[in-house]
Amino acid sequence: MLKTLLTLMSLLALASGVKRRGPGASPLVAGRGRFHLHGTMNCTWVARESSPDSVRVSVKCEDPVARVQGGETDMECAYDGKPQICPAYRSKRKGFWRQMGRSFKKLGADMCKDENAVVSASMCKRAPRDAHFKLDIGSSVIGAQSGGMDLPPPAPFLPTPCPETRRRAEEYCSSSLANVCAFFLMMMQNDDC
To answer: Model confidence over 94-146: pLDDT tens digits?
Structure first.
């Protein structure tokens, strides 16, 4: 009897430790992960319950190399779906989210651009359409930055002497030193043509 009472008390203590979600509580995280695109773009995704029967997956990608060289620097979008419809989701959630991460990676750079993009776990491919995640195109944000252009270095500033100063330099100096003489004459006379 004492043993049963202790067991019931421990179960009660465990049950009271479970927090129920209230209306102001933040949504539960259903799954999360990260992957890489094109070798330099780092992406993360987080799945949260948006209502009792639907889940919203937010995807965010950043490319630090593109910030320097130009191109797409970051992408952000969201996918909505109802994975609870899929029986495999209810029984193997961890495997489901692992497959979802792979599916996002397969979409590649068009992840936040393709309006017809549908992401699904292979274990739920025969589930109803609502179980699959569809892109919410209104949530898509893509940032780009122009990179450093390969411009030639600026030419050094060399003042050009007036025609009169050039004529004087050729008159007083030899032809090989005419440019140097014109430069000194221009500096001494403060030539403003």
So the answer is: 999 999 989 988 888 788 888 888 888 989 888 889 889 999 988 888 887 66
Q: 48 and 27 in contact (C-beta within 8 Å)?
A: yes
Which two three-digit tokens encode residue 30? 């259903």
Distance CA 155, CA 177 (A): 22
Residue 122: which residues within 8 A CB-CB, separation 6 or more?
Answer: 99, 103
- Output phi, psi for 135, to 5 deg: -70, 130
Identity of the amino acid at 44: T
Q: Do residues 63 and 71 touch, judged by C-beta distance below 8 A?
A: yes
Please indicate, yes or no, whether the overall pTM of this predicted structure exceeds 0.85. Answer: no
d(CA 92, CA 69): 42
What element of type H or E holds 185? helix 178-189
